[in-house]
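[agent] plan:
  1. take the single chain provided in the ticket
  2. run structure prediction with default settings
  3. attach structure tokens to the ticket
  4. add a short note for the reviewer (M.T.)
[agent] executing step 1
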Amino acid sequence: MSHPSILLLDDDDFIVRLVSHQLSTGYALSTCQTCSAARRSLQETPFDVLLLDVQLPNGSGCDVLHSARTHPESLNTETPAIAFTAHVLGDIRERLLDEGFDAYLAKPFHAAQLVGTIESLLPA
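[agent] step 2 finished; step 3 output follows
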């Protein structure tokens, strides 16, 4: 049986290492640290879940999600996506869900939250 494939977009090396460690068993994790790299991955690989940082120095996970949904060469037009952000003030959660994300995960997070959120989006 193959492991669910996850695309992680995050520019923070610590977060990338942390998520890689937490998902090292049971998941096939691909990581990107730039929006352009993530967009290329979306056209090359079908993923089971997208885990996208919302605020990056070179763009936004919201823009990457839009590309996933609308680019004619995307292999991830319906892949569930998790907004992954340290911004927790105001109505950010509702805004991100309105932008098309299926779930929201605030940083810092616990491993159980990360895995639980991913598992909730995978088919039964």
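[agent] step 4 note for reviewer: The CA atoms of residues 35 and 59 lie 6 Å apart.
[agent] ticket updated
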